[in-house]
Write a structure and sequence with these properties.
The chain has about 170 residues and is mainly α. Helix content is about 60%, strand content about 0%.
Length: about 170
């Protein structure tokens, strides 16, 4: 999944959490949590920025190994979310801890559809996925960004992402 899908899943997870908890927050606090939770859906991809800086290139074809950084290890976000939740002195901070845990978790669930996630890191670097990853071939575009989009249209996650983004937009507009 790419940015729109991860943001949509973060938004949907945050909306679900807030509707279950029903916190008595100001509109500014609620909006902050919605923004934070939406962004939390893409927190693991902060490694993309590091990857571009390390490679000194914004060529998306160099991104293949960005999922091998620690930011794509579920244990990192689990520990960070639990710590924030446990040290949070009020409900607002506890929800931030919960969103720090849940946002990346939905990210990893989506990435587990076809690319795979290192669910057992640091004990194993093996990526687990529902559908085995097959690198798309027969790409026509000469542009690296065009080839990225061509590849992405050939994987199951593309269609899941479209549905998730539509659901998030409909919910947002209600």
């Amino acid at each position: 999944m790419i940015l729109p899908g991860h943001l949509a899943t973060g938004f949907l997870a945050t909306t679900a959490i807030l509707s279950v908890i029903h916190p008595e927050f100001s509109s500014a606090q609620t909006n902050f949590l919605l923004i934070f939770g939406t962004l939390a859906g893409d927190f693991p991809d902060i490694d993309v920025l590091y990857h571009f800086l390390k490679k000194k290139s914004i060529n998306p074809e160099n991104l293949g190994d960005h999922r091998h950084y620690v930011t794509h290890a579920p244990i990192l976000w689990f520990i960070l979310g639990i710590i924030i939740f446990l040290v949070g002195s009020n409900l607002f901070l506890k929800i931030i801890g919960l969103l720090t845990l849940v946002g990346p978790t939905v990210h990893f669930l989506c990435d587990s559809i076809d690319y795979g996630v290192m669910w057992l890191w640091p004990f194993s670097n093996r990526r687990f996925s529902i559908i085995p990853w097959r690198e798309p071939t027969n790409l026509l575009s000469r542009s690296p960004w065009g080839r990225l989009f061509e590849k992405y249209k050939k994987v199951p996650t593309f269609y899941v992402e479209i549905v998730v983004v539509i659901i998030a937009i409909v919910l947002l507009l209600q």
